Amino acid sequence: METDFKKKKTILQKFRFAFRGMIIPYQTEISIRIQTGVAIAVAVSGFYLHISKTDWLWIIIAAALVLITEILNTAIEKLVDLVSPGYNELAGKVKDIAAGAVFLAATLSVVIGILVFIPYL
Description:
Blueprint: H1 11-28, H2 30-49, H3 53-83, H4 89-117
């Protein structure tokens, strides 16, 4: 007997699950909402300054990298909390590593933003 979890899913169901997976971090994590706000502000600046198509590509990649790593960080944190509900030093290190990936992506995006926008100012 198959459980609901193992039943074959339609394409529409798969898209719904994926969309829900993108929404959950916005419901639970303030950092992704802040990062999205920053990405929107950067996009508005790009429109205002009429940046080139190539520069748009860099800005979109940088913003996506930050949001993707933040979503993955949220997933890792929730999984760690599930398997290790109490304090565990290794669990803490796993969470720190995931947060470090977000920090690295955010730092890289700031560098890209500086390199893109400085010539327009």
